[in-house]
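Dock magnesium ion; give full complex structure.
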Amino acid sequence: MENTRKKIISVSNLVKKYGDFEAVRSISFDVYEGEIFGLLGPNGAGKSTTLEIMETLREKSSGKISIDGFDLDTDASSIKKIIGVQLQSSGFYPGLNLIELIRLFGGLYNKSVEPMSLLEKVNLKDKAKNKTKELSGGQKQRFSIATTLINEPRIIFLDEPTTGLDPQARRNLWDLIRQIRDAGTTVIITTHYMDEAEELCDRIAIMDQGRIVKLDSPENMIDELVKNGFERKKQVKNANLEDVFLTLTGHEWKED
Ligand code: ADP
Ligand code: MG
């Protein structure tokens, strides 16, 4: 099935050196249109470097990258128009409320945006007149994801969007990211959380020390491991502490 899908990103032999240190060591992968593609790996694996090179925010040392048919080397400006990049919250002018910020960013992209419909998409209509410093961690992340959608991109890039959030806020964010994918946008996400990658991503590249050590769907990776005779040492319980917490505090949408 995957073979019939269109490749929207193609990365081949990407290398990034910081001085003598090779942070990304000749990695190659493709991303298909309409999928949530995860770069999973521990801190320092090279996830952000890879992401920022694709976002045109960082120079690569060598390799080829093509995004929606545009070559990064010759057509970075065309790539910028079709991608959504998460803005750092430090760039959110403290004096402006959410509506004003969206108008401001829309102006930067030369797009006329309807702030309330964008805020509705990320469940922040109630906070339209608030400033970002008045938002919770989860709300800030949802707003930051909203800013990636301002230019109606074909692809969005999210760098560890759920780090530091509580379980409910993480689940809200996963739902939002799935909605964005289901509306036709390709999502590239980095994470160091295994459960997040397993739950959210259609396919994952596992990165370690600048290399991709495995690339497949989470299901295929797990099936392959089991087929090769892997068994868990201990009987796993049918629930974990997170299940206890969610049961005690409620599964339903909560103010986060
Ligand atoms: P990740 O996002 O997976 O945690 P990064 O891409 O941020 O990894 O970093 C990969 C490696 O490159 C790390 O060892 C990091 O210290 C190094 N690195 C990242 N940015 C720079 C930089 N600007 N200068 C030098 N080394 C860097
Ligand atoms: Mg990182």
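Observed: Residues 167-182 form the longest helix (16 residues).
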